[in-house]
Fold this protein.
Amino acid sequence: MDSQGRGRGEPIDPADQWVLNPETGEYELRLGPAAGQPSVPGSRRSGPRPTPSGGNDTPGRSADATGRADVSGHSEAPGGSDLPGPRRRRGPQPEPQPAGRRRGKGPTKKKSTGKRVLLWTSGTLAVVVIAAATGGYLYLRHLNGNITTTDTAGATSDSFSKGEAFNILVIGTDRRQGKGDTGYGDANSVGHADTNILLHVAKDRSNATALSIPRDVITDIPDCPTKQPDGSVRTIPGTDQTRFNTSLGQLGRDPGCTIRTVEKLLNGVKVDHFMMADFNAVKTLTTAVGGVKVCLAHAVKDKKSHLDLPAGPSTVAGEQALAFVRTRYSWGNHGDLDRIKVQQQFLGSLFRQMKSDSTLTDPSKLLDLAEAATKALTVDKGIGSISTLKDVAMELKKVPPKNISFVTLPVLDNPADGRIHKTVVPNPALDQQIASAISGDVSFSEVKQKEKAAEAAKLKGPRSAAAEVRVDIYNAGAAAGSAQETLTWLQTQKGVPKSSQLGNSGTRQPRTTLEYAPGQADQARELADLMGLSASALTPGKSETNAQGLPAIVLRLGQDFKGAGVPVSGSSKAPAGVPKTTANEVKCAS
């Protein structure tokens, strides 16, 4: 709905109208209709209210100063409602018109199993405001039925946490599945992982990193459990030193196998969710969004990809959009690494368009986009509903384009190839630094000086005596037994008797955090000093009541925790020497 339709003088993004009702604890869509216009029906979004960032204790597990043993394993928080509930009506209301009666012919339905990272952002952002465009519970139910989900046999999270950093692996397959796709990819492909981007969104939503993983990088693919149609689980044997792209499709591997391969390649970086799209998705999504602006440093007429564009700016959609992201032999050294750069420029342009042009206030375009996105994408069950995809899009929308960094995993030519280089190998000097930065929620974009100063200030100020520190300890991704080990170490070696360990938090997090209420900053500083925690680990928030009925700070041991007494300082800077671009940069493909 545009600003004129609501009687206002300037455009208002409907996505900004979702607000928390303090009386019900639910998010509702608040739009001020113009005189004589009915309110949008079905605009309330039912479901659980946002949960605090802290983890949940395992039921029946509590501890005092004597401590209790860790509980092995980590359970995920239960998911919310799949569909928003219909709004209650106080009197007779006219039956809502089906959205399809007011639209032109939409995109033809194509059942995709997936490709292309490049366009998922537009589809999920459309979901943010689709309720405003249609106002219909039934239409949202229709969109929900479009979504294809895959059970990853435990590789992904069961729910989406809006209060935490998250990682989504976006996979583009080379599977041919739509009309006109026969000119692209391998005719006999089972759907390999052709394009792969790990999208990390920071906990504070100030930045995001899109890490491209080359399809031809040589790596180890681990054993992979896969869910079968009859509900059983079949483990597909791993393969050592093979192309990354065979982590999908080959031997029946599913996206969960690609996720496990990424986690092994990046030294344990946790992938929370995935989105997958195929060739046809590129065409339908770019058409639905009205085309994507691109720029070429020189004219291209590529016989292999069929890209035919002049030098300078152009807008591509459909077949030409697919040709643009598939072109290899017209860029740089004709390899996949140069194509990755062009794809990153394409994605940056798409994100700028979704943030700045009329897409978000054009109901017709939103309807086409929501239809195309929900039909084109395959996702894991943890985000396999319209309401959850809306939540993902709302969180991503908070990130400024200038702070979205595109990075490619550093690689070296594979010496085993001989004179003609066909594959690449990881660059050990830089790859693990990048993995650590992602695990540590470190931004690759410029951080404001004011924010840096505020971060450093957390460790400055008075500290309490160690004997006065009250802390509850949870395992939130560290090795089994870490909470008990830390409790013993604090009590016997560091003089912190008012400490308790409460087993597993119920969630996993990449970094160790220490949450405290405003009046407990002195205790937090002392414990951070004892444990070697960096300022970024300190999280102002809430305390919790311990077994003695007193407020305690909350220590959650994340995946970066290496053992009691081992400093968990982490790096607050991205590794140097890694080329990057940001989503606000306009570049011409060359």
